[in-house]
Specification:
Strand order of the largest sheet: 7-8-10-9-13-17-14-15
Bound molecules: ligand BES, zinc ion
Number of helices: 15
Helix content: 25-40%
Number of domains: 2
CATH superfamily of the largest domain: Zn peptidases
Oligomer: single chain
Distance between the termini: 34 Å
Length: 483
C-alpha cells in the first residue's frame, strides 16, 4: 500500500473513492454531497462510524473532532468499511490550515495500523486490495504547507506505524515458530540498517555472567535461551537510552502451571521484547539522535524433570538471592538479570517493557500500560508522549509498605509478594532490587500485560497483538530530540 502526498486539489485527483470526515453532526457541511442518503442511513457522525455511498464514490467517516487519535481511528475505519469491495485507490484531504503536518502523520498512522492483517497461518490469505492512498494538500480549502513538511510528516507517521505492525507480527507468530532463536534472527535482520549492530549471546555467556535467575527460567525448555542485544549508534548521539524487553516466547507458568484458560495467549509474553526491537528499528529509520539499545531476554517457561521449582533459591547476576515461591512469576527473574546486564552499559535512561502481571490488567483494565519508576518527571514526560501517540498509560505508585511484602525468610527476597493485592507494583518493586543506586532516577518500568494482546478488536487495533508501547516510546524520543 503506497501512501503519497499530492499538491493537487482533492476534487481534481482521480481515485476509486474519496474519504470524507463527517465532523459536523447536522451534516450541513458543503463537502457532504449525500446528506439525504446519510440521514436515511441514520448516520450520527460518531467515531467508528463509516459508510460507503456509491453514487458519489465517497466513504463518509464519523470523526468527533480533529484530534490526532480521532483521525487515526477515522482512517482505520475507512479502510475497514471498504475491505470487501474492489476499491484500489483512495484520496483524502488534510483538514487543516494551521498545522497539516500533525494531521498527515496521524492519517499515515491510522492507514498503516488499520491495514494490518495477521494471516501467516491461513491457507486463503485475505488479500488487501488498497494499492494507493493519496493525501491531497488542497482539499476544499487552500492549505499552506510545503511538500517537504508534508512528506516528512508522512514518513514519520508511516515509520512509527510500520514498526508497530512489525511488533504485532512477531508477537502473533506461534511459540512453535517464534522460538528464542527465531526471535534472535528477527533482531539480526535489523543489523543491515545503517548504524545498527546486533549481538546474540548463548547459554555459555549467561553462565559466565552469573545470570542464574534467567537460566533457571529456561531450564525445562528444549529451546536454548538467547540474550539479544541490538545497538543503534548514530554519530550525533546526545543520550544513551537502553530498553530491556521481556521475551518469553511461551509462558506455561512452569511447575506453578497456569490453568488452561490462562495459558492461551501466552505466546504474547514476548511482547516487551518485540516492542523494544521495534522501537530500535523505528529510532534507526527515523535517524533519531540517541544511542538506543534493545536488550531482550528470550526464553520459554516450561515444565519437565529439570524445571526450576518453588523452594529453589537463585543467585542473580548482581549477587542478590531470590527465593522462588512461584515459577509463574518468571518474567521478573529474566528481567532482573537483563537489567543487570543493561546497566553495564551506563545508560542515561533505562526502560524495561514487559507483560509482567495479570494484576496490572486488574488494576488498570485491558487498554492501559502501567508506568512505574522513581522519577516523577520521567513518568509524566512519558505519559505525555503516550497520550499524543494514542496509547493509554497510567502511573502505579511505589511505596515502602508494598516493598516489605517481598521479604523472604530464606533469601534476600521472594519472587512473589506475601499479599494478593498490589501485584503490579510489587513486581515493579521486585525489579527495583536490581537497579543500581545511580540509575534509580533513570529507570522506568512499563507493564504492558493489559494492552499487549487483544482478544477482541478495539479502536484501530485488530484482534491479537497491538504492539503496545512502541508508539508511545517513539513519540517520546521524538519529543526529547526537540529539547
Ligand atoms: N506473563 C504473566 C503475566 C500476564 C498475565 C501477562 C496476563 C499477560 C496477561 C506473568 O509471567 C505471570 O504469570 N505473572 C503472575 C505473577 C504471580 C504469580 C505473582 C500473575 O500475574 O499471575
Ligand atoms: Zn508467568
Ligand atoms: Zn510471563
Amino acid at each position: 500500500m503506497l501512501i503519497e502526498i499530492s499538491n493537487k486539489k482533492l476534487q481534481d485527483t482521480p481515485s476509486d473513492a474519496k474519504i470524507i470526515f463527517v465532523i459536523d453532526k447536522n451534516l450541513s457541511h458543503r463537502w457532504i454531497e449525500d446528506k439525504e442518503e446519510l440521514e436515511l442511513l441514520g448516520f450520527k457522525s460518531e467515531n467508528e462510524e463509516a459508510t460507503f455511498i456509491n453514487t458519489h464514490k465517497i466513504i463518509y467517516v464519523g470523526c468527533e473532532s480533529l484530534e490526532a487519535d480521532n483521525i487515526r481511528l477515522a482512517c482505520a475505519k475507512a479502510l475497514e468499511c471498504i475491505k470487501k469491495t474492489n476499491i484500489k485507490t483512495l484520496t483524502i484531504g488534510t483538514y487543516s490550515h494551521n498545522c497539516p503536518g500533525i494531521n498527515i502523520k496521524a492519517m499515515a498512522e491510522g492507514f498503516v495500523l488499520g491495514s494490518y492483517v495477521f494471516n501467516a497461518y491461513k491457507t486463503n490469505k485475505e488479500a488487501f486490495k488498497i494499492e494507493k492512498i493519496t493525501i491531497c494538500l488542497e482539499d476544499y480549502e487552500q492549505v499552506d504547507v510545503s511538500m517537504q513538511t508534508a512528506n516528512k510528516a508522512l514518513h514519520v507517521g508511516k515509520t512509527i506505524a510500520e514498526v508497530t505492525n512489525l511488533a504485532k507480527e512477531i508477537i502473533n507468530i506461534t511459540p512453535q515458530d517464534m522460538t528464542p532463536l527465531a526471535l534472535a534472527n528477527e533482531a539480526l535482520k535489523l543489523a543491515s540498517l545503517p548504524n545498527v549492530t546486533c549481538k546474540v549471546m548463548d547459554k555459555e555467556f549467561l553462565e559466565e555472567k552469573g545470570m542464574n535467575a534467567f537460566l533457571a527460567v529456561n531450564r525445562a525448555s528444549v529451546h536454548p535461551p538467547k540474550l539479544i542485544h541490538l545497538i543503534y549508534k548514530p554519530e550525533n548521539a546526545i543520550k544513551k537510552i537502553i530498553y530491556v524487553g521481556k521475551g518469553l516466547t511461551y509462558d506455561s507458568g512452569g511447575l506453578s502451571l497456569k490453568p488452561s484458560e490462562h495459558m492461551v495467549t501466552m505466546k504474547a509474553d514476548k511482547s516487551g521484547g518485540a516492542a523494544v526491537l521495534a522501537i530500535l528499528k523505528g529510532a534507526a529509520l527515523l535517524e533519531l539522535p540517541f544511542e538506543v539499545h534493545a536488550i531482550i531476554g528470550a526464553t520459554e517457561n516450561m515444565i519437565g524433570g529439570d524445571a526450576y521449582k518453588p523452594d529453589d533459591v537463585l543467585k542473580a547476576k548482581n549477587g542478590k538471592t531470590i527465593e522462588v515461591r512461584n515459577t509463574d512469576a518468571e518474567g521478573r527473574l529474566v528481567l532482573a538479570d537483563c537489567l543487570g546486564y543493561a546497566q553495564e552499559f551506563k545508560p542515561d535512561l533505562l526502560i524495561d517493557m514487559a507483560t509482567l502481571t495479570g494484576a496490572c490488567v486488574v488494576a488498570l483494565g485491558e487498554f492501559t500500560t502501567g508506568v512505574m519508576g522513581h522519577s516523577d518527571e520521567l513518568k509524566s514526560s512519558l505519559l505525555g508522549a503516550a497520550s499524543k501517540s494514542g496509547e493509554l498509560g497510567a502511573v502505579l505508585p511505589f511505596n515502602k509498605y508494598l516493598k516489605k511484602l517481598l521479604k523472604s525468610s530464606v533469601a534476600d527476597m521472594s519472587n512473589i509478594s506475601s499479599s494478593r493485592y498490589g501485584g503490579a507494583i510489587t513486581a515493579g518493586l521486585f525489579l527495583d532490587n536490581f537497579i543500581d543506586d545511580e540509575n534509580k532516577d533513570k529507570w522506568l518500568h512499563l507493564d504492558i500485560a493489559g494492552p499487549a494482546y487483544l482478544e477482541k478488536a478495539w479502536g484501530y487495533n485488530q484482534c491479537g497483538a497491538s504492539g503496545a508501547g512502541v508508539r508511545m516510546n517513539l513519540y517520546w524520543m521524538i519529543e526529547e530530540s526537540k529539547k
